């Protein structure tokens, strides 16, 4: 299990990195934390001819709060940095809660949010969380920049909206409105494994305590992270009673497309989705109170 | 290509291919064979080293990436030849190892863990251990050893 | 003198391991070392039409590449390690593994070509240069389908996929069934798992033309047997071959298998190329190339009278042998024999068919088929108890072999080919202790009803088992007092973490009165000890431990004789303590063992006829039969009623392995065994597709339990010494793993109240997904 040979470049600027990508096209892969790419290379499932290591690129490794209260996560910001940030835990508890489920500390030391999202594994927690949080992807290419919403970024298993010459330069996560509660729950075989099913829930109450907004997003539930907009919408205007939540959780099961794995049958995954959605919505409703 | 990596405080310069894994560099280029390799896909934890003080999988990084970083391995723990540090001693006292293959990775994970959390609960220890696989012990004596080391103020 | 035998002493082997100084096979670095990678079959069953190594050989950095035809006369199927048992009417077809595929591949991962290069990286690059033409054949996977007419044949010349068929019986089962108040018949299945030691396999070989000797570092559990086999294959004398099994990163059975193709090829290549050669199995290879275990289907029935007494058991089972059968029938024999458990079974009728499949070979892994037998018997008893309205523990008590019935002859042939006879045991106190420790009565009366009222699903399980351990044929040990005063002990078995360097030192220290830190134990180096068999079947402490004891006793006599001459006194007047000998009552006037070793090896004078120089002895021990350990496991489990994820709330092991040498090491063995049992019961399963492809060949997908999955295990012991060895010990290595499947099944059924829905758990391993299906009637 040794990687195939490759040319290694460690540019120091974004422009240089983008120029390399433009020059080498499909043969080149960006290397951020490497916690998904390197194992794939060790198995020789991935054999990029060129690796563009982003770890020495200046300016990609910062975690910034923008004026509008959004969090901007640079492409090489490591999970370890995010999870140790007290403000993240306070202002984006969903992110913090889900991060604790991502692999193990040794992986989070080097793993990056940007790398994970670019990898676009539908079983991974972070894409679903980005969907629930309404995050935007800042994509850079030599000729400019564009922003893509999380819901438009993930196109299929290991497939994103990134063009061949584009880099995911940053992730922008908007602030949670007041009176919002969130929860992330998953069931994995072992802690740190990819979930057999995971759900991110977000609920906002209005002044009267009724549900003003609801979002549900699942991981391991289809070819991409899966939102359940119909189920979520059914909660808006309700008092978020147990029955309201149970009905929404049941409805969400119809909105996902679990594909099954050696660990879980699709039927069991769908069952879990209902169980976890109900539990996560209940938690989020409590937290929104 | 030339790479200069500092391992356990000593700078080593070697001419290597970019694809050389850090785990292979540590073991076979500079001969520190205490770091073991169990899976080469980042799951077992046997190759855990400290990367600028934080635990990381040596099998999931290329040696060329380690230039300019401080890498520490199990060989750095004991302060003198033929001695054990407090964590190592707690491992012996608790019978926390059998074949000993996973042990160096666990020691490095726990070194970083105890530095951040010097008085952990059993549950915290088990969570922190869960990224290292041990096939021999059933973990109980490892948990005991970490708690013992913490109690002794390791 | 302070005794060390029986004390929970910390281990001699630990400091080097903890400092990262211990030598494992991949740590061996030699000048000019070459590295090997193997091209392996991507197909489970395919005819090999051609292999083209030209491009691989031409790649810079590649030294050599070999296919089967390049091996010439060296290509031959491996030896049969364990011949079939002397059971009348038995059928056995010997089909042993080959070094490289010549005609057809019979499982995914079977080696097809070998590349030797300047680095492992280059060797792997060159695998991509090899062009192979295959004709893909239907793969044999399902055990029952394999036996149907028209099934694809793993070995065509046999005409069937039957590897073996063995029928053993005692008493008249048909009569027992006729007389029974209740007959319970069920089908039980047990799927494949793997041992997955943290260190994969590896071989390094170096031919020294000046010494005319071959040195091989091998992750084997049986270095002496490897030495003998390699010598024979390579046309060398045994003395020309040194096999070293240094520190081994876990074995658990599959490193006992021999000969693996890589073990045959790497030394051959080193001799041929005149350079040292290393092959280290990577984790992906390990999933295909290192042997697996388990996968049996039992159609079993039990006949009982109205009081729950067993009248007889009948079992017909299929055993998945994998593609070849070099290990003979150890596994199904273990299943067949261990099924009888702690119980009086007046009539037993058991027949198994071992089946060739297009899957990785199956050889013993911790438990080695015993868990299958225990699973079947314990499940049958659980179901019978329910149907008879008897408490599950009471039905066990009523059937225990009584303590005055030992030695107890079970009337069948065991894996060591002797009659299965239990040497000693006393089962009722073990069960009583386990029930007491887990709080069985209170759980049933209070805890469980209260939990159920709260909507929580709590269950309890209690199961019993025996484990045949410490079988022959023999091991030996050499004890020698060094001039330094330290004592050396060498034995032929290898160690994979069992603490032999400490436990054997405790055995020797008991005789020689030295600190165990002053006893240097060498295991697994054929230059240090010539004879031996291997570390398997929980036999190290029993057989090699007893040999060490015998050798130490002889050395003790030599010490006393030499000291008596020195002090000019009677041997009876001497005391050996703290590495010195003194005359009773005169502790200040002593002589060290080192000095005595010098006196025993004089530079002048004569060693008189009939005596030997030095303080040294070599002894061998071969037990008359295996020692039968026993125990009970109990657990309380909580299951999330919706996700079906279990949490073990309490786990108790009560174990009887006779005299205990080191309780700390024993605890570690039990805990580790339970952890593997938990993995086997609820986490670990090899999944295959229709084409015989393994679907989860990574540690991300094949799930070893973590520190969060294995609970704290509470332990208690009873001691019924074995009369079959001088120490009274029984093996303990596998006991932790054996009953866990049966325990999980019972406890999970109880937690989910499945019996009330007429649902039973009849299979292993489980998972939340499968448990959800089962509890929904699937």
Automatic annotation (TrEMBL), chain A:
SMART domains found in the cross-reference section: CO_deh_flav_C
Entries under InterPro entries matching the protein: CO_DH_flav_C, CO_DH_flav_C_dom_sf, Diverse_Substr_Oxidored, FAD-bd_PCMH, FAD-bd_PCMH-like_sf, FAD-bd_PCMH_sub1, FAD-bd_PCMH_sub2, Mopterin_DH_FAD-bd
Keyword Flavoprotein tagged: yes
Official protein name in the record: Carbon-monoxide dehydrogenase medium subunit
Gene3D superfamilies, per database record: 3.30.465.10, CO dehydrogenase flavoprotein, C-terminal domain, Uridine Diphospho-n-acetylenolpyruvylglucosamine Reductase, domain 2
GO molecular function, one term: FAD binding
Record domain FAD-binding PCMH-type: where: 1-178
Keywords: FAD, Flavoprotein, Oxidoreductase
UniProtKB/TrEMBL annotation, chain B:
InterPro entries attached to this UniProt entry: 2Fe-2S-bd, 2Fe-2S-bd_dom_sf, 2Fe-2S_ferredoxin-like_sf, 2Fe-2S_ferredoxin-type, 2Fe2S_fd_BS, Beta-grasp_dom_sf, Diverse_Oxidoreductases
SUPFAM superfamilies: 2Fe-2S ferredoxin-like, CO dehydrogenase ISP C-domain like
Residues covered by the 2Fe-2S ferredoxin-type domain: 1-77
Entry annotated with the keyword Transport: no
GO molecular function: 2 iron, 2 sulfur cluster binding; metal ion binding; oxidoreductase activity
UniProt keyword terms in alphabetical order: 2Fe-2S, Iron, Iron-sulfur, Metal-binding, Oxidoreductase
One family name in Pfam for this protein: Fer2
Protein name as it appears in the record: Carbon-monoxide dehydrogenase small subunit
From TrEMBL, chain C:
InterPro entries hit by this protein: Ald_Oxase/Xan_DH_a/b, Ald_Oxase/Xan_DH_a/b_sf, Ald_Oxase/xanthine_DH-like, AldOxase/xan_DH_MoCoBD1, AldOxase/xan_DH_MoCoBD2, AldOxase/xan_DH_Mopterin-bd_sf
Keywords, ordered alphabetically: Molybdenum, Oxidoreductase
GO molecular function list: iron ion binding; oxidoreductase activity
Residues annotated as domain Aldehyde oxidase/xanthine dehydrogenase a/b hammerhead: 19-138
Keyword Kinase: no
Superkingdom of the organism of origin: Bacteria
Pfam families: Ald_Xan_dh_C, MoCoBD_1, MoCoBD_2
Lineage start: Bacteria, Pseudomonadati, Pseudomonadota, Alphaproteobacteria, Acetobacterales
Protein name, UniProt field: Carbon-monoxide dehydrogenase, large subunit
Native source species: Falsiroseomonas stagni DSM 19981
